[in-house]
Amino acid sequence: MSVQIWENARVATMAPDAAAPYGMIEDGSVAVRGGHIAWVGRRKDMPPELRVGAEAHDAQGGLLTPGLIDCHTHLVYGGDRASEFEERLNGVSYEEIARAGGGIISTVKATRAADEATLLAQSRRRLRALLAEGVTTIEIKSGYGLSAEHEAKCLRVARCLGETEGVSVRKTFLGAHALPPEFAGRADEYVDEVCRMLPQLHAQGLVDAVDAFCETIAFSPAQTRRVFEAARALGLPVKLHAEQLSDSGGAELAASYAALSCDHLEWLGETGARAMARAGSVAVLLPGAFYFLRETRLPPVALLREHGVPIAVSTDCNPGSSPCTSLLLMLNMACTLFRLTPQEAFAGVTRNAARALGLRDRGMLAPGLRADIVQWDATTPNELCYALGLNPRRASILEGQAQ
């Protein structure tokens, strides 16, 4: 099996126990065999046998990092809500927009009306913007179909994107996202329907994890628990939109199911943070939604640090609260709005984002892990957190193959 070598590089391994910031190796090299990293270290220390017959690539002194991971998106949806954005800026309240048929229900209508080919074309444009900035793994949630037929359609589109666009896609079932109009006033009955959908979708290979929106405007802890029980029966991991608008105990509930992550978390309290720490759940912070909705309550970063809860950062790409397709911009916002350090933010789109998806084979550059690598025209990852509107990516490598 042939070996590929990237050398003359500054290598940010993102190893958590490394002495140097970002696990940085000066004048480093990375050797790849069979889609996995065979060796990483200083160029002068590379075993000579790896060079025999190897294909060498000169990184020209540039930066090599793990591929970026966008671990919370709603990328597949129909239409947009630009007109609602303008209405809100002109003083129309969200409640008034919703009563007029806008809000999430307008996206549900547009998504249901769109055929698979249309959804695929619209979603591909959004995905390619993320890939151009070094994303090599992405999570895509359903949640805008809200029926068995249309949830399946959205998840099939997500799967197709992974098969055709040179990216690893994790598919998350978010049937418990909102109450569809045909179930108005019958939330418990809709949760029954969600629990019926899940085995059907799982049998089609469309579900890697299960999510829910536990909030006063969405689903109660008791209803969320029923969804999680259905996931547990199928052996599927869970995630949760938790504590975004209030402290409803969602994080503690999710932690009791060993949730991969709890996301948003602006209202997270001590009890929830302790529970997440015990469960090993990742806190996924979404600065795009915080910014776009003009929120004022910051997620409790100091509390997360105190309890050793891993922190990830994501775009939350969606039409209503974070129409964002730039993970690099989210790095800057996580630092400027949430006061993460650049090292914390970059770990949040690499090793901790991988953990938020239950993926232990990526997010760092280390022997045995997938060779998902990005080459940058930069010297350290803090430059990627610092610059606004600059994309210094030179190339992306997915499982050892240039994209």
Summed up:
With 403 residues, the protein is of the alpha/beta class.
Task: Return the structural class.
Answer: alpha/beta
Query: For the CA atoms, what is the radius of gyration?
Result: 21 Å
Spans where pLDDT lies below 50 across 5 or more residues: none
Between the first and last Cα atoms, what is the distance in angstroms?
20 Å
Average of the residue pLDDT scores? 96
Total number of β-strand segments? 16
Main β sheet profile: 8 strands, mixed
Helix content, binned percent = 25-40%
Give the DSSP E fraction (strand runs of 2 or more residues): 15-25%
What oligomeric state best describes the polypeptide chains here? single chain
Anisotropy-based shape: globular
* Total count of helical runs of at least 4 residues: 16
Describe the structure.
The chain is of the alpha/beta class and 403 residues long. The protein contains 16 helices and 16 strands. The model has no long low-confidence stretch (mean pLDDT 96).
